């Protein structure tokens, strides 16, 4: 095989590049729209007289700007955390947690558009897990299951050293966990990357995530999973 042949990408490499390109195209489009809205709102506010900025029109533009910036922040945080998880760039810091208390706290900070949350099963189970990553996973799953104010039921089961959380509410599509691609539906709340992020969080915690019967099922080990720190030279 010649050196020229070596430069030709293999079919699987071409598919990976195309998939990656479609995903990044979606991310760029999803961030660009609310960012443009935020900048437009800020420019209009800057041109207003002080009295007008304090009036109804100024309040409306300020709220629009804040909503758009919140959407951008959510997208950027989810995207970069996903990227770090893809390269093993986040060390796991486990701590002892009671699952019921963690779910209740997540329910307490849910956005206004997410429905009420109830917990069934053995909520007193304790597990060793990274709190920050578990919180990100629960926030995203509750928001997805509780979209459009749908009530959410979290069922806790433990068996054989593992914990299973079944999170049921608005029915989840079979492909809900897949990475979006160029042309995928937008999300006005900024949550378009949240479920793909949780798909990455689950294995980082030594667990799994699946859609079963329209519900999200997050399975986690009761004992802490170990994730090695990546080689700093390989991932500067």
Please give a structural write-up.
The longest helix is centred in the N-terminal third of the chain and has 37 residues, at 11-47. Helix 2 (11-47) packs antiparallel against helix 4 (56-86). 47% of the residues lie in helices and 18% in strands. A hairpin with a 2-residue loop joins strand 6 (208-212) and strand 7 (215-221). By secondary structure, the protein is of the alpha+beta class. Residues 228-236 have low confidence and may be disordered. It has helices spanning 3-6, 11-47, 50-53, 56-86, 99-108, 131-145, 194-204, and strands at residues 94-98, 117-121, 126-130, 152-159, 162-168, 208-212, 215-221. It has two domains: 11-86, Signal transduction histidine kinase, dimerisation/phosphotransfer (DHp) domain (Helix Hairpins); 94-221, Histidine kinase-like ATPase, C-terminal domain (Heat Shock Protein 90), CATH 3.30.565. The protein has seven helices and seven strands. The strands form two sheets. The chain has a five-stranded mixed β-sheet. A two-stranded antiparallel ribbon has the order 1-3.
């Amino acid at each position: 095989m010649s050196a020229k042949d070596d430069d030709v990408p293999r079919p699987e490499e071409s598919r990976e590049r195309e998939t990656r390109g479609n995903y990044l195209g979606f991310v760029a489009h999803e961030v660009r729209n609310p960012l443009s809205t935020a900048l437009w709102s800020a420019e209009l506010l800057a041109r207003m007289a002080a009295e007008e900025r304090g009036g109804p029109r100024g309040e409306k533009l300020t709220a629009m700007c804040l909503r758009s910036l919140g959407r951008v922040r959510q997208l950027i945080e989810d995207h970069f955390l996903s990227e770090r998880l893809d390269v093993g760039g986040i060390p796991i810091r486990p701590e002892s947690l009671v699952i019921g208390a963690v779910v209740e706290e997540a329910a307490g900070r849910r956005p206004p558009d997410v429905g009420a949350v109830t917990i069934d099963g053995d909520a007193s189970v304790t597990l060793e897990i990274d709190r920050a990553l578990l919180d990100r996973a629960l926030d995203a799953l509750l928001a997805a299951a509780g979209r459009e104010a749908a009530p959410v039921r979290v069922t806790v089961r433990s068996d054989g050293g593992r914990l299973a959380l079944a999170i049921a509410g608005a029915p989840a599509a079979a492909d809900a966990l897949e990475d979006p691609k160029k042309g995928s539906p937008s999300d006005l709340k900024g949550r378009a990357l949240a479920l793909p992020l949780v798909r990455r969080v689950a294995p980082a915690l030594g667990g799994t995530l699946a859609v079963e019967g329209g519900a999200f099922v997050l399975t986690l080990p009761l004992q802490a999973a170990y994730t090695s720190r990546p080689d700093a030279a390989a991932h500067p």
